[in-house]
Amino acid sequence: MTKIxxxxxxLTMENQLMELVAEPSGEFKKFTRMxxxxxxxxxxKVSPVxxxxxxxxxxxxxxxxxxxxxxxxxxxxxxxESLHFLFKIxxxxxxxxxxxxxxxxxxxxxxxxxxxxxxxxxxxxENGFARKYPRxxxxxxxxxxxxxxxxNSGSEYYNYKKTFSIVLLALxxxxxxxxxxxxxxxxxxxxxxxxxxxxxxxxICTNALNIPEPNPLPGSNVDVPYVFLGDGAFALTDHVMKPxxxxxxxxxxxxxxxxxLSRARVVVENTFGILVTKFRVFKKPxxxxxxxxxxxxxxxxxxxxxxxxxxxxxxIYTPPGTIDIYDNNDILTHPxxxxxxxxxxxxxxxxxxxxxxxxxxxxxxxxxxxNYFFALSQQQNLP
Length: 383
Known about the structure:
It is found in: Nucleus. GO terms for molecular function: hydrolase activity; metal ion binding; nuclease activity. Belongs to the HARBI1 family. This is DDE Tnp4 domain-containing protein. The chain is an alpha+beta fold and 383 residues long. It is built from 14 helices and ten strands.
């Protein structure tokens, strides 16, 4: 044992955390990205799983400290060596603590992400989008999570950007919460193929999601299905709407449709932006194996939903100004602070936009939405 560790006891480690709690400037909240109440709640949940027994050789590291180490790693992105000096725990032990605690957090928070299973639940989500984009039941996006070249992986994780990555595919609601996440697809898979290989697509194809039956848009008698809003990285299908490619003349139907879709879809951009800037473990490519990166990513997503729904942690996690602010005309007035904090070299990268020829019925559905938004814009411009 190194000399700086010899005076380490359970009491000294507990006292270190208590000093943070007692600090009136709110250092503990900055340290863990959450309130003390939520920290204690999570501690009570995971303690039975992560607690270790003392031995004749040494005292076990308390569960409270194990949780604090993990939350600090996720919040700061500090490497194991930096955490070693902060907590007086060896990097080797920290490398074991973090996956164990992340696995425990995944178990206790698994209900924080739950894809709707009934038509009523989907309609609740549609209510949040209805003003900007009726029949929308979620905004979908995918990201490459970059990592150092995994050992003995060959080209499995090598992507078109000449980096190594796994892919995160996520669906969010209008309240900036994740309702579905699929993590771990190899970076070499085409970006369009990620969605086609996902559990979400399988459920869509087998009608296992219980999505409400199609019905007409206001002022129309043509049935349109409920849809997810995507960008150019996704293929246009009956249940996924994407923008028209290229530039279009101001005031044209296609431009108006693209603007309407962008205004509604911006929630997923904000959600990913918050996730990456608040959990700074994503600030640079991971130097971990793909399995651990997937585990850490899912832990951050679950914590994101948990903190967004917490009355005590919400002001800490997303204080006023974090999310984009729009006026009554859906014009961006104050960009979210996450846009200034996002780093260009972060581990989270966009998917490639690939042009694809859609099926005729998907084009007809998009045209029906286009006609609706164009007619709506004409009505709003009337004196």
